[in-house]
Specification:
The complex is a heterodimer of chains A (79) and B (538). In chain A, a hairpin with a 4-residue loop joins β1 and β2. By secondary structure, chain A is an alpha+beta fold. The longest helix of chain A is centred in the middle third of the chain and has 15 residues, at 32-46. Chain A has a 3-stranded antiparallel beta sheet, with helices on one face. Chain A has one helix spanning 32-46, and strands at 9-17, 22-29, 53-63. In chain B, the strands form 4 sheets. In chain B, strands 6, 7, 8, 9, 10 and 11 form a 6-stranded mixed beta sheet that branches. In chain B, strands 1-2-5-4-14 form a 5-stranded antiparallel beta sheet. With 538 residues, chain B is of the alpha+beta class. Chain B is built from 16 helices and 21 strands. Chain B has helices spanning 17-24, 29-41, 48-51, 82-95, 115-127, 160-170, 246-260, 271-291, 335-348, 368-375, 378-383, 390-393, 412-425, 491-508, 515-522, 524-535; strands spanning 59-61, 69-73, 79-81, 100-102, 108-113, 144-145, 185-187, 202-211, 214-223, 235-241, 299-300, 312-315, 321-326, 332-333, 352-355, 361-367, 395-397, 434-437, 451-460, 463-472, 483-490. The chains are: A alpha+beta (79), B alpha+beta (538). β3 of chain A pairs antiparallel with β19 (451-460) of chain B.
Chain lengths: 79, 538
Amino acid sequence: MGEEKAESYLYKLEAVLEKGRLLTVVVIAQTDERAFSSAENNLLRHTIAPPHIKELSLVEKKPLGRQGVGYVVETSTFA
Amino acid sequence: MAERKQWKWAADPSLNKMEFTKLEKDGLDVIEAIVNIYSKEGFASIESSDMDRFKWAGVYQQRPKDGHFMMRVRIPGGILNSEQARVLANIAEDYGRDLVDVTTRQAVQFHWLTVESLADIFDRLASAGLSSFEACGDCPRQIMGNPLAGIDPHEVLDTRPIVAELEKFFLLNRDFSNLPRKYKISVSANIHNAAHAQINDLAFTPAKKAMAGEEVIGFHVWVGGGLSAKPYLAKQLDVFVRPEEVVKVAAGVTTLFRDFGYRQKRTHARLKFLVADWGPEKFKEQLMELVGELEPGGIDLTSGWNGGYFYGIHEQRQAGLYYAGLSVPVGRMNAGELNELARLADEYGDGTIGTCNTQNVLIRNIPEAKVAAFRNEPMIVKRFKLQPNTFVGYAVSCTGTEYCNLAIVETKERMRSLAHYLDDTVVLETPLRIHMIGCPNSCGQRQIADIGLQGALVKTSNGMVEAFDIYVGGTLEEPQFNRKLNARITVDRLGPFLAQLITLYKADRQEGEPYWRYVERVGLSHIQAQVDAILQPA
């Protein structure tokens, strides 16, 4: 095995926008810092006008070593 | 290598990847490889497919993955003797950077071990009748029990022989070394649910039944409990089990899990998923098909929940003898302190020490004449106190980012300093259990805490700041998991925030009302309004 390569993680972040709107962002990164930065980039890509992010938090990370790692993100319900 | 079992699920192509790893080579076979190869040839020699199997030896890679390992040692039922304690202390001193953690399953954990040290550690453990084997992995793990077994005025029978039989039956038993996932057993005849029955895969709790004109003391059986990201309370089966039937029933339940537990998806493999699907009735029927007829349930002897706490000096069942419940803040001690505990156990007690699922310890069998001197021992006065302050005494923490690869925030030292802060800030004479965890998994059993704190990282203008989500109202008294509030508190505000929240509870509570019951009475929205008021900008 020898020297350990930097492990990647699947990160789950939560972005609180104005009016209490909550977005969940999932990114792959090797460090917590990179996860935040990637999440912000993805939020920018997702919106036309830059979103006003009141709070961005990293809430979970899972190692990418296993196939199938993921998150379930609850969003809205259909009537 | 032992002869490989031919499991009936081996032909199923939809098994998850880990199942194929387990079929290729039994997890227990890694022990031989560690002893004969890896401990001699070093970290670089470890076959990558064996790294997962290290868990069967009770060993995990710790964070960062730079060649160091965490080891968990089984303390069956949470009772060990002073000789064993000294062996553990010496291992910590020689190989583990002087660190010993008592876990929420009454086990002992080391950190910083190298693979080169493992063979010697296995030998040392074996010489004291201890083992790390199957303390992790997809197998029957540390058996949780009543650390007061045999001396407890609140137990209806001595469970030590039962725990010993279970340990003997399951440990290194290749019939059960390939389960779908981890598997946790709890056995206690303490009437206050000392071993947290409802959060174990299989639990035995005290019961009695009139049979043939005779009152028999035995157990009720619970199956399918567990915490983690999707917590589930165990369900009671309508059966009464005599003490001599416990191993048979445990073997039956474990066989059901082994043969019918789900192996397609690792995230859906714990016994709780099978129990949720089958329901307790079908589970009971299947169990009786395996082990034969069982008596229907009798009278439940469980009365409330002691939370796993035993602080102070208390009379034992044996007249003239006492036990001493001691506080080990967040379960962490060093080798010298463990050696000192061993000395205290020898000098004042009968040499036995209890480990508690609250990360604390106790000394057993202290004669009345020695109690006063025991109280005055410097270790008891200064460090492992008989009556700790409220918050230090009821604080539990997982390992956190210090060693855990999944944790998002630091917890162990933070929980300790937070508890000290609260003790300095809020006077509260009654217990309030605060559990801190560093990720959504539940090593620190956040869900059953009065106040649960779950870590997150928040991005601020000053960079990343550690923060905690707040959960309230967890208990096993009237079992329910705590519920999340809308509040993510950064660490700089966590102490003052909790101090205010607890002060509001103190002002509003009814006589003797624990926090979980208070939450139940006033409602979550009331607590949320308290939180909103506290967090409102000045």
